[in-house]
Amino acid sequence: MPELPEVEVTCRGIAPYITTQTISKIIIRHPQLRWPIPPQLPKLLRHQTVLSVERRAKYILVYTTNGVMIMHLGMSGRLKIVPATLPAAKHDHVDIVFAHDLVLRYTDPRRFGALLFVKDDPFTHPLLKDLGPEPLDTFFNAKYLHQQAQSRRIAMKIFIMTNQVVVGVGNIYANEALFMAGIHPERPAFSLTMDESTRLAKAIKQILKKAIKQGGTTLRDFFNSDGKPGYFQQTLQVYGRSEQPCVSCMQTLQTIWQGQRRTVFCGNCQA
């Protein structure tokens, strides 16, 4: 599943090709994604210009002169820039065709993604209005994290994956950040000390920045808009390394399930 770094890489990949460009038409081949694609979308966006491409959490916001497309890649979605002459494949559900004969193509084998549209402020949309801060913003820091943790009894990993606390810390990066900070994933959030909050906020930022720099993590479904895989998976310290030696102390990594997601950690290094 594409996580924050993959979505950020996608935004950066498509933006140079579509910003300031005019949409000539939109082809919808399969309107039923996680939610139905608005049937009026082709009419609303025909001859409109793309003003900017931004990311909020795992959502891609494409601002146009007539409103904002809100896009989500779901479990297996992908956006890519292709020539207008390239035939669509089985799972290519939407083409946003531009006047300069390039296409922003949305591909999604599982159809768990989304393509929605709003005329007004996208941050008032139900999907976006209650989201917490971005992990790479200055507002997200040790003081904020410590304050948020004080009244919460949920496990530490679940805590940092809660979108109302901070957005975009998915399963892969939660595993990695907790290992880097030396914090056990099952500890209750309220037990987080100020020193640990400092380490954890720093770890989250470092892990995400590194993943973005290396092009995102390729597991099964994600390739960025240039068709190149990310390479962050080659540097994972715990995720996907169940029963292997810890890179720090060489003890065998342990595996548990939290919220129907696999958690891998070192019982020796993570207190």
CATH topology of the largest domain: the name is: Helicase, Ruva Protein, domain 3
Strand numbers in spatial order across the main sheet: 1-6-7-5
**Inertia-based shape:** elongated
Largest sheet: 4 strands, antiparallel
Task: Report the top-level CATH class of the largest domain.
Answer: Mainly Alpha
Runs with pLDDT <50, length 5+? none
Mean pLDDT: 93
Distance between the termini: 29 Å
Level-2 CATH architecture of the largest domain: Orthogonal Bundle
Number of structural units classed as domains: 2
The number of distinct β-strands equals: 10
Q: Report the β-strand fraction as a percent range.
A: 15-25%
Describe this structure in words.
The protein is an alpha+beta fold. It folds into two domains: 4-124, N-terminal domain of MutM-like DNA repair proteins; 142-265, Orthogonal Bundle (Helicase, Ruva Protein, domain 3), CATH 1.10.8. The protein is 24% helix and 22% strand. It has six helices and ten strands; from the N terminus they run H-E-H-E-E-E-E-E-E-E-H-H-H-H-E-E. The protein has a four-stranded antiparallel sheet with strand order 1-6-7-5. Strand 9 and strand 10 form a beta hairpin. Helix 5 crosses helix 6 (194-213). The two termini are 29 Å apart.
Show the helix and strand layout:
Layout: H1 4-18, E1 23-28, H2 41-45, E2 50-56, E3 59-64, E4 67-72, E5 78-83, E6 92-98, E7 102-107, E8 114-118, H3 142-149, H4 156-160, H5 171-181, H6 194-213, E9 254-258, E10 261-265
Antiparallel strand pairs: 1-6, 2-3, 3-4, 4-8, 5-7, 6-7, 9-10
Helix pairs in contact: 1-6, 3-6, 5-6
